[in-house]
What we know:
This protein is α/β, with parallel strands linked by helices. Helices cover about 40% and strands about 20% of the residues. The strands form three sheets. It has a seven-stranded mixed sheet with strand order 8-7-9-6-10-11-12. Strands 13-14-18-15-16-17 form a six-stranded mixed sheet, with helices on both faces. The protein has a five-stranded parallel sheet with strand order 3-2-1-4-5, with helices on both faces. The longest helix is centred in the middle third of the chain and has 18 residues, at about 250-270. The mean pLDDT is about 95.
Amino acid sequence: MRIFFSGIGGGALGPLALIAKQAGYEVVGSDSTESAYTKQLQKQGVELYIGQDVKKIEALHAKTPIDWLVFTSAITRADPNHPELTFAKQQHLKYSLRDELLNKIITDQKLKLIGIAGTHGKSTTTAMVIWLFHQIGVPIGYSVGAKIPWAPMGQLMPGAEYFVYECDEFDNNFLAFHPHLALITGVGWDHHEIFPTKESYVNAYVTFLSQSEKAIMWEEDMKHLNLMPSSKFDVVTTSDPRIAAIGMPGEFNRRDAWEAVLAVHKATDSPIDVLIGQIEKFPGLKQRMEQLAPGLYTNYAHTPEKIRGGMSAALEIAGKHHQKVIIIYEPLTNRRQHFIKDDYKDSFAGADKVYWVRSYLAREDPNLPLLTPTDLIKTLSDPSIAEPAEIDGALGEAIKKHLRAGDMVVAMGASGGGSLDEWLRAHLKELTE
């Protein structure tokens, strides 16, 4: 079967394309822009082209017919009449979101799904579970929504019994799956364009858990979701002394690590002490307190919960070296700010200074007024620690000054084209020389 992936360079479709190729499908795809990931896919033998227009897919289909077009919900949100999807409909080709194909692969390969969901911590926990399986030599299939420097983002290993998947709640993606084992890493409220109320968000998680055979979750999430104790739930508490004993900076990282240890222990019966020893060697993943240079870090933190998690790790690392902690914060979407602005408060507690740049704009509601850095800084319990900033030469000079003074600088925010993270990477040499 020949499958076409529309938006193949994305964090969800790219790994799935690799998995489909390894499962024996013929894979081809396109993306609107070239990226490091599209180049990586090409190096791994995936045929793709840049630029999404009807002429290209027509020519491709005429040469070798496409059997199935898989697309992301992002393309239809950007353009309901997306040319590639429109072509598939006109040609009466099978088309679907990624869920249907992944479920088919899981079923055909007779895999047991370990589904990891949560408002925050799911990418890190998924990567940790993958790391542990690799370290104990157990083959698996997996897909994670973040770049991991020590392995591909998606893989299907021969002889696998389990498939580890980051179950994203965006567009109710996770409700397409029925995990053998579910992990809940923490529930707040996000993706407000999909879940307009906290109740609707909570209900989605309750449904996800009802579809899971077994689950590991935190006691506070159990209460937040108003769930009754059940033999299917393995409920863990943050007061467990084994969490604090994990040698890893950041309380939230240690919690993620503990859930990963419990999941792999439950799946393989590997001793917990052995798994803790292996998780302490976890090398991390891209943009999760990733060190770009001495003293300079980048962290994908765009909700108050994720910011607090990043601050926890930053303060522990900085405390060992008696460093000041400097934060550069880029909010992710103006739309999200209207829902979370009153929750910032003490999110940056412990920071010596916060440079607050403009929100990274994506999938915006044109009816919502644009909240500026000045507007958002006012919501902090102590606004004096923050100041508005632009992503420009002046910010670069400030970063250089802080690094020369021996401070720890952490960029928190979005990823992708035009983001603070991309700008840092592009100017890394001049910022650190």
